[in-house]
Records
---
Amino acid sequence: MLKAHNLTKRFSGLLAVDDATIDVAEGPITGLIGPNGAGKTTLFAMIAGFLNPNAGTVTFQNEDITSEKPHLRARRGLARTFQIVQPFAGLDVRDNIAVGAFLHTKDPAEARRLATLTAEKVGLGHELDKLASGLTIAGRKRLELARALATQPKLLLLDEVLAGLNPSEIRDVLPIIRQIREEGVTILMIEHIMQAVMNLCDTVYVLSQGKMIASGEPRLVCTDTAVIEAYLGHGAAARIKAEGAAHA
Amino acid sequence: MKKNFEFIAALAFLGVVGIAAIAGLPGNILNLLIFMMIIALTAQGWNVLGGYGGLSSFGHAAFFGTGAYTTTILQTSFGINAWVGLVCGVILGAAVGALIGFLSFRAGLKGSYFALITLAFAEVLRILANSWDFTGGAAGMMVSINNGFAYLQFSDRRWFLLILIGFVAGGLLLTRWLERSAFGAYLIALRENDQAAQALGVDIFKIKIQAITLSAAITALAGCLYVQNFLFIDANVAYGSWISIEALFAAIVGGAGTMLGPLIGSVLLLGLGEITKSFSGGIAGVDLVVFGIILILCVAFAPNGIRGFVADLWYRRKSRGKAM
């Protein structure tokens, strides 16, 4: 469904993303993990159109969208959330979500009805009339999700929707994400919380220092030497293996 | 519900003013009300872009003056009907808005840069209008007196006030539509966060151009009506920074980005100015001192304008009532 091939992004001297390739198949949830500063959000920004890559191509449903503007990608059915939540602070929750719903209907009453339904789906049903600035972090994360969902996306890019939530809030959000997938939306998610990645993702890509170092089933990727070393440092994989052998 | 209440209250206020005018008001009050309505309309135009879109212009004189000059030149130099002149003035004002918008938004200007560039455009137009022959140069232009509906001039000024009230009511209606429509939602969304708006499929460039065009059209309309009342313009009146300031001042003091803000602001500012003038015994510029004090008070205590201040008080009282 989405093919981001050989993407490279340079910020003057810094090579943020280096020849990274990611393929997202229609249906399952794909995860993108990696240590802080690996370039995950930069890669996301190139897929969503907020940054132009220095090299590489992005294809969505077999059409090249590498240099297409973000709003046109949204119309194709590619929605994203932001890692740092970006609510429309002066609007209430319903109108925040309605901005997304207006993508497919110009009728204000219909857009607000869809917004209400979407809010209920993510558990914001009781806060519809609250200003977005009055929401908790957990509420704002849900609002990000609801707004993106209201555009009726085919592919949803989630940038750390679980970050900053406490364990019980995470437990509440996981079923929502699963339900979104069951409704036929393909998901590509950046996530640090491994519990969620193992739980949700069918495929995982690992980015480290701008390079894609591994991909595959979550369980296999977690035991990959390169991945362990990316997170824990050089030689860590060997040490863990040795300790594992000692315990056995 | 509350928005409905505000809308109806505003219409009722305009209705009362209209009825009072028909019943008979002293000439100076009538003149003040006419001026209030012209400024209210100018500010309603500013409010679309500056209030809802968060793109504060310091140069709405560019649109006001273009409207005013267009209708004046068409009437005096070409003998064209005042109403046709008015429509042409609005169209040309909107076109100037679209052009300025295209140039500034393509360059991604916002905030103080956008404010400065609009000020610069208005100043350029002022200087040009002051030197060109077909705008009458520094001597300005007069519209000859022809009373009657077709000429949009009235010996009985009550009729003119009623027409102005109609246009201001139209502005309220437009703002009410704006607050509900997809266009309005997109405009507010890009004010609050343009990145998030783009991610939701909002073509922010297009929406900004549409907003400045609509905003310019309304302000140009006010410029046309100004000429029909005063029958004289020169470059400093039409393109002077005074009108840019009146427009943003009335909208901000009243409450930028609200339906009632521009009307509240213009009525209050001009009303207080007039009261001060009548008590000060003719000290020149004392009304401007009052303007300054109001602005300081607003910035300090009512950053959301008078509409926001009153709404806050209202909510506080209501929630206190609930607590008890």
---
Amino acid sequence: MSENKIYIHPAPVRIWHWIHAAGIVALVLTGFQIRYAELLGIMSLADAITLHNYVGFVVIGDYFIWLGYYLGTGKIKIYFPDLRTFVPDAIRQATYYGYGIFKGDPNPHVMTPDNKFNAMQQKAYVGLMFLLLPAQMISGVLLWRVKGFADYVNLLGGIKIIDTIHVILFFFFASFLVAHCYLATLGHTPLAHFKAMFTGYEEHH
Amino acid sequence: MKKMKKLKIPTRSIGVCLLVVFCLWPGLVLALDNAECLDCHGDEGLTRENGSGDNGSASLYVDADKFNHSVHHMNDILCVDCHADISALDYDNDLPHPRELAGVDCAACHEEAAAAFGDSVHGKIKSKGITMTCYACHDYHYVTHLAAASVAERENNFCAKCHNPYQSHEWLPKQAEHFAFVECTVCHAPGVQRHIHLKFFDLVTNTFYKGEEILKILGVGYDEFMPMVDTNKDGIIDKAEFEILELMLRQKNDHATFHAELVAEVEAAAHKVNRGVAEKNCEKCHAADSPYFNSVAIVLTKEDGSVDQHQVDRAVLESYSLRHFYIYAGTRVKLLDKIGIILIGGAVAGVLGHLTIRILTIRLRRARKNTKT
């Protein structure tokens, strides 16, 4: 490999990422079909629910691969921002995305294996992976067996409350998918980050 | 002769009058009321031989208390109205009526139901030599009002006696939820009318409140319930009125909530269940404009099993006042759709805006790069 290439994404992370990506896309599509059954004709409602359930459990299993890897290797700390520098880092990063990038300024964050995410990514991913995704998984499991988990469903306020949590997070993940795919085009070439997530190597320019 | 004539005329008139009265009132002719029948059949030990019970016998006992709560007794139906081949009791014999009686002909009164049943899969098996009687499902003497029955009661007392739903609905997602909240005939009797029943439910004991129990909590009587709730007096409990009712309920008893079920109208069409015609199109129900939710009612059960039903606006199904009921797509909360549009629309707009500026500033970046090199 050339000197300006750096190995950022180990194989377990790449495998987890692409399973997760395919799963989230499938969950979003089947989620739309389930919520708007009378308006969309991607597939039948019965098939959409069945597929949504299966894929949901794949994503849950995949989450634990991610958690196991990052906890096991101790790399979980890359998700947690340094509170002393977080605010100025985040301002600097936001300024870059909102202004500097158009002028051709260099990205203020330089990716390394131990410092993979910029301040804004850390903020987004720590909430996503430790709060929103678990909440979505738990609400999804409760909706999967409403009758079997009736006591828990009632304890949390009823099926409509659980559904509201699941649906708002569903819309959030659908919008995140749009933003995430776009932000992935902000490398030195539009496909650079996509390529890196297959090869594991990011190129520094 | 004249005297005799004077005596004959009144006698003939009285005789004709009595005949007319007796014809119009069969009970008088028979002079058999239920108490006479229960003199013997109220004995728990009364059996007949050649039955399917222990020692080849069959019980002939009729529980008077249960019978008195039956819908037939409440409608003043006598034993001999159904057991119509008993015209008189001859107490000179050990058995005061014929040993073998004809089968009860329910169709004599329930003509429409009998016709629908005859045209159903259950009626048609007669051609295969299997006769399914009405009382195989409806019981003999203790038929009660069904309007108040929950889905579980309707299923357990009828279809589930013979059918295990889990063995024949492999294609159906969320089986347990469907079997718990949707009555079988909602899908299996396509011609039937459907209703959403909202019943008061105790979350702690997992039991339904009887009408008088919930009215006691609310501090009103049956006749005062609707005037109390329907404040705009339009005859329908709308979303705002339902919210106030739910709030009152929480103030007075925090265990009480609403339990919603999709049930079929108790009507003749419910008997017309046939193979291959069950509704399998999920979107028929799972749609925001589904006709299945046109009729929504709060159901107050009475002691005799009958009900008071109070019409509710279907918009209530989409409200958070009804937190323990949700049907995918069918009763979705519209506010969440607006939040979804804002979130996804915001992301798409942000991406498109950023992309547009990126494209418009390509020359700027190229010029800067060239200057650097």
